[in-house]
Specification:
Belongs to the isochorismatase family. Pfam families: Isochorismatase. InterPro entries: Isochorismatase-like_dom (IPR000868), Isochorismatase-like_sf (IPR036380), Isochorismatase_domain (IPR050993). By secondary structure, the chain is an alpha/beta fold. It has a single domain, classed as Rossmann fold. It is 41% helix and 18% strand. The longest helix is centred in the N-terminal third of the chain and has 18 residues.
């Protein structure tokens, strides 16, 4: 059967890429991107999906922003543009090599792109949460999303991920996830992307 990209809580991991203080003033829609990523992290805790957090050169770019809600996570420091550094590879092995990656953070055309390529080469299914991913330039962001789709990544949204993971209003955690859906995701400038397709 063709791979249709159906998400499952049993075989997924959430990647939180480089949402750090120094990026705050420069990243397009930074506040809304982090807000959506924070909802995904909250959902991952409710549903038992392990999170992996990285920071790009934290000495220069600062720590992960507090509003992500990731203070309890170990941040893997890196200088490479991919999140797939040795420590992250080891963490994935310890998790039993999950087959699906839910990817959010910055920047779309740099660290998100390099991570996506590495994950796809490993044979993982990659779900890029378009409204939880950005770059300094909207042009770079939109072309990166288009490019990564060409490479075989799935483009999705915060709300779509949350609903796909529970799949049924009878799910034992549905009420908790429903609270995260109380307010629709803010517009992060993606409509222009679709009008250009």
């Amino acid at each position: 059967m063709a791979n249709i990209g159906r998400l499952s809580t049993k075989d997924a991991v959430i990647f939180l890429c480089d949402m750090q203080e120094k990026f705050r003033p420069n990243i397009f829609q930074f506040t809304n991107i982090v807000s959506n990523a924070a909802r995904l992290l909250q959902a991952s805790r409710v549903l038992g999906i392990p999170p992996i957090l990285t920071e790009q050169y934290p000495k220069g770019l600062g720590p992960t922003v507090p509003e992500l809600g990731a203070a309890d996570l170990k941040a893997h420091a890196k200088t490479s543009f991919t999140m797939m550094i040795e420590e992250v590879e080891k963490e994935l092995q310890a998790l039993g090599n999950p087959k699906q990656a839910i990817l959010c953070g910055i920047e779309a055309h740099a660290c998100i792109a390099c991570t996506t390529f590495d994950l796809l080469e490993k044979g993982m299914e990659v779900h890029i949460v378009a409204d939880a991913v950005s770059s300094r330039s909207q042009t770079d962001r939109l072309f990166a999303l288009s490019r990564l789709k060409q490479s075989g990544a799935y483009l999705t949204t915060t709300e779509a991920v949350l609903l796909q993971l529970v799949q049924d209003a009878k799910h034992p955690n549905f009420k908790e996830i429903q609270k995260l859906l109380a307010h629709p995701s803010p517009d992060t400038g993606l409509l222009a992307f679709f009008s250009a397709l």
